[in-house]
Amino acid sequence: MNTKELLLSVLMSGPATGYDIKKVLENEVSEVVDVTISNIYPALNELAAEGLVSCERVEQENRPNKKVYAITDAGREVCLHALMTSPARHRLRSEFMFILSFAPYLPKSRAAELLEQRLAEIDETEETLRTLGKGEGPLAKGALLPGQKFCVGLGRALLEAERSYIRENSHWLLAPDRDVEPVMELAAH
């Protein structure tokens, strides 16, 4: 999905300010899909010009005015069309896995560091998903829709499986005997 379609999908949950939308994209949507945050406001303006969102300026006392965006019926149709026709690819892209594929050439301490960092990231992401699972977050309106609940549960299951795999198999990367001498050690010879 492109940025505009992602914005429309966020607004399917209800009206929101640009700031709220940005937080959802950064903290929730970015955990699931690649998101470009830099062009949110221009994209919202384009969506408004196309009649896919409405924009209401709300005056605030002692604070700058804010704009609240809401999806229109036409925007809902465009969003649903995108959801119906976009390919539902599931990709596994991971710099973590790429670097670890070269673990035999790295000092064991680097492999251990990467594994520890990934386990910490898993814990952090799981906490985000727990929060989502409770229907909390910048745009939360309470209980999750069944599809959202399914995705949160699937995400948590994948993270738990990854954690278990790392813990059960890290010895492959950290074993004292190796098939290949690490490049870092070879350079010292």
UniProtKB/TrEMBL annotation:
Query: What are the TM regions of this chain, as residue ranges?
Result: none
Instruction: Tell me which Gene3D superfamilies the record gives.
Output: Winged helix-like DNA-binding domain superfamily/Winged helix DNA-binding domain
Q: Which domain of life is it from?
A: Bacteria
Instruction: Specify the Transcription regulator PadR N-terminal domain's residue ranges.
Output: 7-78
- Give the InterPro entries listed for this entry: Tscrpt_reg_PadR_N (IPR005149), WH-like_DNA-bd_sf (IPR036388), WH_DNA-bd_sf (IPR036390)
Q: What is the protein's name according to its record?
A: Transcription regulator PadR N-terminal domain-containing protein
Query: Organism classification, top ranks?
Result: Bacteria, Pseudomonadati, Pseudomonadota, Alphaproteobacteria, Hyphomicrobiales
